[in-house]
Amino acid sequence: MITRRQSLTGMATLGAATLGLAGCSSLRPGGGAGGGSGSDGGGGGRSNTLVLGHAGSETDPRQKGSEQIKELIEERSDGRITVEIHANSTLGSWEQMIEGLQLGTTHIVIESILALEAYTDLAGVETAPFLYESDEQFFGVWDGELGAEIKASLTEETGFELLGNMFRGARNLTVNSEVATLDALQGLTIRTPSTQTMVDTWQMLGARAEAMPWDEVYSALEQGVIDGQENPLDTAAFNALYEVQTHCTLTQHMYANYHFLMWGDTLAGFSEEDQQIIREAADEVGRTYTERTVASLEEYRTTLEGEGMVFVELEDREQWVEKVSPIFEELPDQVTTWVEQIRAQA
Ligand code: MLT
User: Fold this and answer.
1) Whole-prediction pTM
2) Is there an atom of ligand 1 within 6 Å of 230 CB?
3) How many domains, in total, are found in the chain?
């Protein structure tokens, strides 16, 4: 049977060759192909450099998160570990950076669980639409045992560690027309990240879904190749989408955290003490990041309105939710169980 992630293989840049190669790589701090330049594995002596990449601009909250984790890790490891930050997809799209985690060309990538859908259908626990009714419901899941269980399962299934929980806010639609109803969405071309569930979601809603790497989105909007995109408000505010989009519909169709993604073998290559430093730093940044998002969501909206964007409430949300219900019939049993547990917390 073709799974959703297999059917999207051409869209995501993941290839079987990549996975095979990764399986053979030596991924150790100081181990050449693996985690960090230098040597020693973190026990003292020469430094290890962790290459951190993200797809946001240098004013995006991801950059602040990167700078904070760099400071914490370098200070607490007494300089045994250094962190090198690369913003703006300069190391490649996030799809490529995540492949780089396995290859050892990147060591930390800031991304959401959706970025793992090319590796496991369990990522459907994030990409399945309309799971949350409020921020409180989201925190109830991700600050609790269920969130920890989901992260542990994803790590076991894929080999990627998901460190820290950096709350991003709900995803909303931006477009160049007023979309208050499902009717107004029909036929618009909407960019999604390269995940099959999100492509399916927007097709079911009646849009033409176009999966595209994030670093191509601004120019595709500018040239009119696509009509809209969907992301949390900070992404629109800090990546100047207000220059190429006139409206934002508060669809709130998906909620997510960012995490510091690391290849498990890379992290395991550090001493116990240094692994703890990295994990604790990620958790601490997660708390700061989340507090900042909660405190700033209104401000992000004000910024976008100040730049001329018009905010639109969804008038027929029940119809949107109804249209995407077939997505839930396709989910693996484990994800269906999680979805029920998440909904029970509404
Ligand atoms: C995007 O590509 O739209 C996002 O930045 C990916 C994500 O939400 O993780």
Assistant:
1) 0.88
2) no
3) 1
